[in-house]
Every structure is written in C-alpha cells, then in structure tokens.
Amino acid sequence: MNRLRTSFQQTTGQISGHGKRNVGVLKTAFAAVADEMASDQYGTGAIIEPFEQKFADVLGMDDAVFFPSGTMAQQVALRIWSDETDNRTVAYHPLCHLEIHEQDGLKELHPIETILVGAADRLMTLDEIKALPDIACLLLELPQREIGGVAPAFSELETISRYCRERGIRLHLDGARLFEMLPYYEKTAAEIAGLFDSIYISFYKGLGGIAGAILAGPAAFCQTARIWKRRYGGDLISLYPYIVSADYYYELRKDRMGQYYEQAKQLAEQFNALPGVHTTPEVPVSNMFHLHFDGQAADISPKLEQVQEETGLGFVGYLVDKDGYCSTEISVGDAYGELDQQTRDAGFARLRQAFS
Amino acid sequence: MNRLRTSFQQTTGQISGHGKRNVGVLKTAFAAVADEMASDQYGTGAIIEPFEQKFADVLGMDDAVFFPSGTMAQQVALRIWSDETDNRTVAYHPLCHLEIHEQDGLKELHPIETILVGAADRLMTLDEIKALPDIACLLLELPQREIGGVAPAFSELETISRYCRERGIRLHLDGARLFEMLPYYEKTAAEIAGLFDSIYISFYKGLGGIAGAILAGPAAFCQTARIWKRRYGGDLISLYPYIVSADYYYELRKDRMGQYYEQAKQLAEQFNALPGVHTTPEVPVSNMFHLHFDGQAADISPKLEQVQEETGLGFVGYLVDKDGYCSTEISVGDAYGELDQQTRDAGFARLRQAFS
C-alpha cells in the first residue's frame, strides 16, 4: 500500500486536493502579512476578535469562537447543550467523527451517553429521529463524510429542524464541509446554519488551510465555549498561525466551491463509466465522493500504480479493503483545475485500459 | 492601567521579554525552512517525530509528545498517573497553574480530586509532603512562578524524589521554565528530569516560541498520552507552525539561559536598591522575579509611565494591587541584552529620582 501512496505523491498533477500539505501553505498565507502585526493573546486581540465576528456574521450566529480543532469544538458544543438541557444523552450518526475518530473523547471526558441513529451505510431518517428517547442534542453532519459525502434535501433539513425545535432538542451541525455544500443547496451558509442551534466549520477540508475550526452559536453558548476551550487547553497564547491561514484560504477558495462541485460530478461520471468502478454517491452533492473498485486492494493497487507512474496523473493515494471491493476518497480542490484537458483525457484513457 | 501598558509598548527598549510577540516571530522561524518541507500529519512525519525524540533525549526520558499547550499536557499527565495507580487524588501547590489558570479543567474533565500542599506564599516543605494522604501524583513546579520564581535546592528535590519513589507516588514536573533553571542548579535538563516520572516543558516562556509544549516520560505513559491528546482534540492534522518555531527558538536561546539569569540577578539588585521597591526572590534563581512597589497601582503607575515616556526604556507593563503594595513580573530575555549600558543607567537613574 505504501507503493500506491508513493506513486501518488510522485505524480505531477492530481485529481483531488489542493496540492501538497507543506510549509509552503503557511508561507503563502503569511507572505503579505506585516511582521509588526501583533499576536492574539489568549483569545483577545485584533487578529482573532474580528475574525471570530466575521464568521459569526457569515453563519448568521450571535458569536463564534476559534478552536484549534473540530474535535475540541464539537465535544464542547455537546457538553454545553447537555448541561443546558440537564440531559446526559446526545445522538448522532454511527459514523460520526466523535464516534470513530476521537478515541471516545466525548465519553471519556464528559458524563455523556450517546445514541447512534440509523444505520452506518446511509443517512438517518426523520422516523428514526422521531423514535429517539429524550435527548439533549442531535448532531447532523453535512455532508455525511464517511459514506461518501451524502446529504439530505434542504426540505428534509427544515423538517428535522422544526421537529427538534418543537421538542426542545438542540440541533448541532458538523459543518466541517459546509461551504462545500452550498452550491448543491443553492443556499448561503447562514441559511443552512439558521436551521441549527450551533455549528462547527473546519478550515482545512475544502478550504485547505492548515488547521483550526470555528464554533458558532448564541452569545451565552459561545461565552461558555470559551471557558471550556480554556479547560481543554485550547486557549493558546497564540493561535494566529491557524487564524491567518484560515482567513487567507477562506477568501481564496470560498467562491470556488461551485467549481469543485461541478468538477466532482464530472469526475464521478468518468469513474462510473469504467468497468468494475463506481462512486458513492453516484452523483456527488459536494466536492467529495467515495471511489470503489471491485476486488481487493492488493490486486487493484498495482494497476493504479502503473497508471500513475506512466501518466504522471495522481488518482488514488490509498485504498481500504471492504467486502469484495476497495475504496478511497476523492475531494476535489485546486489541483484538478490545474490539470489540462489533455492530461485528464490521457489519464482516464489509460485508466480505462487498465480496468478493461 | 491601560496607560501603563501603552507607555510600556511604546518604549524602544525593555528590560524584560524577547521583544514584541508579533507575526515576525513566526516569519523569522520559518525564513530558512523550505516550502517543500511536508507538514506533520496527525502526530506523524519528519517534522514531528525527530523533534519529539530530540526532547526525549534532552530530558533523558523514553519518549516525548508534542502538545499544543501545557494545560492539555499536564491534565493528561495527571490523569494517566491517576489511572495507573488507581488513585483519584493528586497534589500540588496552591498557586499551581492547574488550580488558578485553567478554569478547573482537570476537575471538570476528569474524576480527579486535588489537594493543595502548603501555603500560597511559599514553597511546600518535605514535612507537608510527608503529611499527605495516599495520592497518585505530586506535581512540582520549577521555579514556582506565581511566587516570583522560587525553587528548592537540588538536594531537597532529590529528597522529595526519593520519598515519592519509596511511597509509589508519581512525581510530575511542571517544567514550563526548566531551561531557565539550569544555570542556578548547574545541572542538565536530564539530571533534573531524572528525579521525576514525567515532565512538561513550554516553548514560549524563556525560549520565546509561539506556543506548544512537550510532555515526556516512560514509553507506555507517552503512548497513552497520545491517545488522550487525540481525545482532547490536540492531535491536530498539522502542528508544524508551533514545532518549527519551538525548535528554532530552542536552538537560538537554550545557551543564553545563564546570561538571562545573571542579568536577572543584576536587575533585581538594582531594583532592591530603590526606596519602596523590592523583589521576590531577593536574589533570583532563574531569569524571572516579581517586582513590588510600596503603595497602590493607581499611585505607582503614573510615576512609571512618566519614566518610561521620558527615557524610552520599558520597565513595567502592568501592576496588580496587593495588600499595601503592587506587583509585576519580570522575565529577562533577549530585550535586556539589546539595551546599551547608557540607556540602562539613565533609566535606573530616572527611576531612582521618581521613587525617592
């Protein structure tokens, strides 16, 4: 499998991502920033406060708090809603980030119980939400990343939101890829966030920053979130390396999400036309999808390595074995747009040859 | 009080610190780093792994883990020792960072009880340690920052260490300012760390980095610490902005600690010669001390502002009222060495005039 990664890294162009995650990402973001700009200082100062207010405005919320990570931000959000409703139970999708990527941080650090809603291979349904016992908070992720980036229709979100408000259930949005969803919904970030009580967004997914997250919500919620940020050790004396880069790449890429979305649909169509290859969703609703090959990684990898070595075009950097097939994730970013048509066509032609 | 801060910030030279905390600190550290250097990736990669090993070696420990903050690192250390000894009680000084600066994170996030050892205005004694009930871990801070930067003799540390080992009490070092203590002890970092089971060091105190911390200890301890780092949301996809700068300023300043220490003693002596002014400790044991003025901040501030405005030399950026006096903290860094003798002499002459 390392050979596949190496062959991907050695390509001169890639269908996914924004290019390499290297120190150049930082240096580019800081190139035009004056040395004299003062650091933030434990959450205060001109580098952080207007930035937080900007994202409060973008999301149509009272206030917003910059966190070093989404892991920290979302645990804090669920704890605050749990305390506020005096209810120790929260609910989310079986493949929620908190359930599978955080070493059970939520449950190890807080007196919180979780309920997994619905099945791992699809979105949760309104009926499943209605069948839940009394909960403090329901977390929805848009798009549901671990199943390829799938999302409910906006009208369904409205129905879920209405139901939760009627029942006093706080609705939190894992909006790690919220901006990536806007072209599909044809809504503003604030219009989507408006259906939720709190929201987290990430700066290093489609936006391609270095790291960091915003947690936005009502004023009192954010005030309490700042206390928890201190408790977690997330209130660093200086967060500006992440903030400056987050702002730089947000401004650079926020208006490119429609382009990434169209390119993702185009790419998925090309993959789905190959024998033994398919994507989920079949038609992407954001810049991402999962790409599946019939067969096991041990058999598929050498074919992909050969194509990548011959064409210089990077398709796949890793494969995970599933039941009878193997999978990877594609997230379209700037790299795809930097390819010329001829390189793309030649790459797919060679891929078709390898998989026929 | 804001006028005092402003007058300090507008001076052209300062007796404490390393100069302004601004974006230039980052840019300087990255100036010689190639754009192509790959980011760390969730704790792995060439930018973080050799760095962690380097500090494991510096501290003579099996392993070391880079954390975004000391707050996170130390809570994790205490939790691990608590779990390992199956004992929910830890003990530390009444003015320990965990007790007064972390919004009770340790107690809010973990099932841990704390015992405050001794009195707030002095170091804890061996007898007080011996009088403790059964505890998982004792945390010592070197130097004890909140009382001016005071530290026990090395022989006393050895005695405490021996006692704790005999009793199965884990001994953790808050070594935020460990490197600053080495000239006084005339020991290596590893010789001091060797008395402890685990140790945290900070990169933005005397070293003057941007942020970040190392937690070092036995191999199994560090392995568990990495799990807790993930749980806390401290296992960022990219921590290199802090790591690269930490390494840069460590290399730049690690051999200057003796100089800062001598300068701190010299400065304290000059302050103690002024009427109505004294320092704690009277003779510093590191680069830091607390500086006290008889009277209240409202009366002292205007005098200091005037001296700072007239001389262009920054002595004090803030004052905190105590009982009959007011105080500030001095930490000697590069800024002091950049002053010429004439500026220093003229500054102290003017200060003497103001306080006579």
TrEMBL record, chains A, B:
<dbReference type="InterPro" id="IPR015424">
    <property type="entry name" value="PyrdxlP-dep_Trfase"/>
</dbReference>
<dbReference type="InterPro" id="IPR001597">
    <property type="entry name" value="ArAA_b-elim_lyase/Thr_aldolase"/>
</dbReference>
<dbReference type="GO" id="GO:0008732">
    <property type="term" value="F:L-allo-threonine aldolase activity"/>
</dbReference>
<dbReference type="GO" id="GO:0006545">
    <property type="term" value="P:glycine biosynthetic process"/>
</dbReference>
<dbReference type="GO" id="GO:0006567">
    <property type="term" value="P:L-threonine catabolic process"/>
</dbReference>
<keyword id="KW-0456">Lyase</keyword>
<comment type="similarity">
    <text>Belongs to the threonine aldolase family.</text>
</comment>
<keyword id="KW-0663">Pyridoxal phosphate</keyword>
<feature type="domain" description="Aromatic amino acid beta-eliminating lyase/threonine aldolase">
    <location>
        <begin position="37"/>
        <end position="291"/>
    </location>
</feature>
<dbReference type="Pfam" id="PF01212">
    <property type="entry name" value="Beta_elim_lyase"/>
</dbReference>
<dbReference type="GO" id="GO:0005829">
    <property type="term" value="C:cytosol"/>
</dbReference>
<dbReference type="InterPro" id="IPR015421">
    <property type="entry name" value="PyrdxlP-dep_Trfase_major"/>
</dbReference>
<protein>
    <submittedName>
        <fullName>Aromatic amino acid beta-eliminating lyase/threonine aldolase</fullName>
    </submittedName>
</protein>
<dbReference type="InterPro" id="IPR015422">
    <property type="entry name" value="PyrdxlP-dep_Trfase_small"/>
</dbReference>
